[in-house]
Amino acid sequence: MGAPQALLRPVEDPAGLPGSKEQFCAFVYFNPGCEQRNEFFRVLSSKKHLDSAGRLLNNIGGDRN
Question: Exposure of 44 by Cβ count < 10 A (0-12 exposed, 13-18 middle, 19+ buried)?
Fold first, then answer.
C-alpha cells in the first residue's frame, strides 16, 4: 500500500488556495471486506464531509446498482 505521506506535497503558496470549497471529496466503491479502506473513509469523513456514491457507505442516495 505504501506510506500515505508520499501523497502529500508541500503547499508552495498558501495565499493562492481557494478560501472555501463547496465540495471536498467523492468516494465511490463497493467492497465491504476491505477494512483498511472502510476505516480510511470513516477517519477522513470525521474531518470533513465526503460524498459517498457507491453501494457501501452511500450518503447521497440515488441508484446504487
Answer: middle
